[in-house]
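Input sequence (230 aa), recorded before submission:
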Amino acid sequence: MRQIIALGGGGFSMEPDNPLLDSYILKQSGKTNPKICFVPTASGDSENYMNRYYEFFEKQACQPSHLSLFRPPTRDLESYVLEKDIIYVGGGSTKNLLALWKEWGVDSILKTAWEEGILLAGISAGSICWFEEGVTDSYGDVLEPINCLGFLKGSNCPHYDGEADRKPSYQELVGSKRIQGGIAADDGVALHYIGQELETIVSSRANAKAYRLSVEEEVVEAVLETNYLG
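Predicted structure, token format:
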């Protein structure tokens, strides 16, 4: 079963005292002690980020590891990735993430992982990357469209309520057809896809939501049913 869980925000890096989303991700692997691998490419392998990852997941029923492209664990990255149960992609620069993944062949490896039933998850850049397009700040202060891996159809915008520019920028980009319609997620919201279908939406915050944006004569924002995990 192909699964992707895309977080608009939240998880160990943003809500270290709220384990709801990360516990949900672990549960969806179907394993009692899943092998979870953090991919911090978008942050330039931030040591602080990796430390926070291990600080959280070493206390959970799982086997945490990470994949560095700056200090590779092995020459055979494909075998390293394909032995995992969950791949968890961190936030940062989506543009740099995609460029490095392509150079190292990680994009192809992750597609194989997805097709073989390894759960793909991620936050922010690690959410955007799975879609055809995303809204990114990789180019500087202005939010712009970026072409991504295309495992999932449409576009994606994380941090919809968490960063002031996200909502108006995404609406303007969709409305002007500079980016195709898609799904926006507040901080604390996870979009759970089975195959290419949005199966369920869960949240770690009682009022956090997801939204579908489309264009008719103008931009239409539809609130999607979101299940609070608390």
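Checked by second reader. The longest helix spans residues 47-57.
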